[in-house]
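Q: what sequence does this backbone want?
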């Protein structure tokens, strides 16, 4: 029986305190994310990773000693495998920590798949995320001399099921009083230079927010960016600064929506849940709620199934469902 391989792609995260430094080294060694001159990138990445590992170790201690992203991504793969059935082989390729892309490709080879669909768990396309994951996949693919047909799903930021999944999450977690909350969407920031070079990430984030807000006509809202990691100019406003601004304007009920994330990690569990919550409370915001990521919500798994069934033909168009 001919099988189709489905590769769920994500960033990955350290699965122990000892893994923090090598994870960060892999991250900062990626020229698609950090543009250090290639001749010195790896030595500089090693130095940065050593310094940041000590700082971020505290984050992971608060999170139980590791990132939960691996377990949550494997659960997404498990749920997707259930709904797709035996004609598919769903595997996971993390960019910066286990299971690496090479491990995913080995699984596909062992299962003798006849075609491959690359399905990033980044809803919004950027060369720094989806683009980097694709590039790593083809590096492994070519190294192994494969000739299996490959199809790519580049983004699904405006798919009706993606919007529905977020709308349901927000309403479920805020309850009947959801209209009373200011909705602050928080996305991972990127260097402005990358956007000016034509990267669609910012415009896709903005479109997702606009489509979600069509379901919340009575709520006020804003979009901000978090997790800057280098001294160059990054997308603004920053989430922490926006929280202070909203507090100064008298906002008392704030819901933060991590629009660019589909699983939990340090940016949500530490940055939003601990650091920014304390900031909000200190500034007078009485009710601070962070909407959880989509993880394996039934609507999100249905979305992934539909994307696979389209055979890689969805490239950001709004489909009728």
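A:
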């Amino acid at each position: 029986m001919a099988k189709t391989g489905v590769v769920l792609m994500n960033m990955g995260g350290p699965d122990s305190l000892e893994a923090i430094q090598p994870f960060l080294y892999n991250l900062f060694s990626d020229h698609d994310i950090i543009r250090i001159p290639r001749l010195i990138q790896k030595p500089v990445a090693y130095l940065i990773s050593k310094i940041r590992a000590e700082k971020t170790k505290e984050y992971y201690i608060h999170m139980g000693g590791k990132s939960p992203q691996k377990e949550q991504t494997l659960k997404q793969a498990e749920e997707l495998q259930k709904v797709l059935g035996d004609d598919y082989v769903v595997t996971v390729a993390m960019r910066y920590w286990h299971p690496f892309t090479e491990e995913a490709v080995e699984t596909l080879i062992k299962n003798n798949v006849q075609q491959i669909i690359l399905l990033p768990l980044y809803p919004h396309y950027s060369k720094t995320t989806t683009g980097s994951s694709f590039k790593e996949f083809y590096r492994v693919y070519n190294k192994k001399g494969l000739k299996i047909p490959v199809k790519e799903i580049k983004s699904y930021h405006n798919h009706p099921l993606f919007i529905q999944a977020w709308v349901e999450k927000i309403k479920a977690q805020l309850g009947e009083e959801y209209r009373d909350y200011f909705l602050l969407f928080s996305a991972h920031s990127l260097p402005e230079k990358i956007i000016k070079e034509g990267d669609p990430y910012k415009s896709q984030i903005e479109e997702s927010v606009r489509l979600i807000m069509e379901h919340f006509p009575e709520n006020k809202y804003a979009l901000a960016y978090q997790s800057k990691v280098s001294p160059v100019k990054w997308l603004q406003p920053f989430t922490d600064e926006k929280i202070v601004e909203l507090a100064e304007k008298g906002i008392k009920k704030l819901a933060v929506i991590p629009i660019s994330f589909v699983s939990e990690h340090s940016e949500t569990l530490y940055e939003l849940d601990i650091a920014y919550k304390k900031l909000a409370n200190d500034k007078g915001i009485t009710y601070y709620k962070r909407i959880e990521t989509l993880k394996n919500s039934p609507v999100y798994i249905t979305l992934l199934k539909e994307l696979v069934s389209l055979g890689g033909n969805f490239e950001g168009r709004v489909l009728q469902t």
